[in-house]
Amino acid sequence: SHPGLLLWQRGMLGEAEKLYREALEGRRENLGAKHPGTLASINNLALLLQDRGQLDTAEPLYREALEVQRRVLGAEHPDALSSAACIMFSARIFSTISSIAKDYFIFWVL
Questions:
Q1: Which stretches of the chain drop beneath a pLDDT of 50?
Q2: Are the CB atoms for 17 and 52 separated by under 8 Å?
Q3: What does the radius of gyration of the chain's CA atoms come to, in whole angstroms?
Q4: Residue 31 near residue 6 (C-beta atoms within 8 A)
Q5: Rounded distance, CA 110 to CA 105, Å?
Q6: CA triple 7-64-78, angle to 5 deg
Q7: CA separation for the pair 77, 102 (Å, rounded)
Q8: Residue closest to 8 by CA, chosen among 52, 64, 74
Q9: Looking at residue 95, what is its pLDDT?
Q10: Which region, left, alpha or beta, applies to residue 8 given φ > 0 means left and ψ of -120 to 50 means alpha?
Q11: Nearest by Cα to 59 from 93, 31, 26
């Protein structure tokens, strides 16, 4: 969604998310769940959600795209590898945030 990308770049993440969700819904309806365009929309929405700090919402989308990409394109396909990298990156961010939050909480308890 090009208008969504423009909104994202301008920091209007809530408005961008709405357009990305609409684009994904349209692609699922018109192209089907296995179409590369649909899978790209899933990943794009996940990236936006990750950027908004919604890792718990982004990760299932990454996993959905990866599962279909592996089944349809093969595990070694660049799109599948990219989705796998996104999952690992988001997991690392979540782990780092959790660790910081835990350290911060322990600091204030002491």
A1: 97, 100-110
A2: yes
A3: 16
A4: no
A5: 9
A6: 80
A7: 37
A8: 52
A9: 59
A10: alpha
A11: 93
Q: What is the pLDDT of residue 37?
A: 93
What type of residue is 19?
L
The per-residue pLDDT for range 50-72, each reduced to its tens digit, is: 999 898 899 899 889 888 988 98
If 0-12 CB within 10 Å is exposed, 13-18 middle and 19+ buried, where does residue 11 land? exposed
How far apart are the C-alpha atoms of 37 and 91, rounded to whole Å? 25
Q: How far apart are CA 74 and CA 104, in angstroms?
A: 42
Q: Following DSSP, what letter does each residue of 26-72 receive, concatenated?
A: HHHHHH-TTSHHHHHHHHHHHHHHHHTT-HHHHHHHHHHHHHHHHHH
Q: Which two tokens stand for residue 22?
A: 């609409």
Residue 92's pLDDT is: 65
Chain centroid offset of residue 79 CA: 13
Both structure tokens of 82: 């990219």
Residue owning tokens 């982004």: 58
**Residue type (1 letter), 24:** L
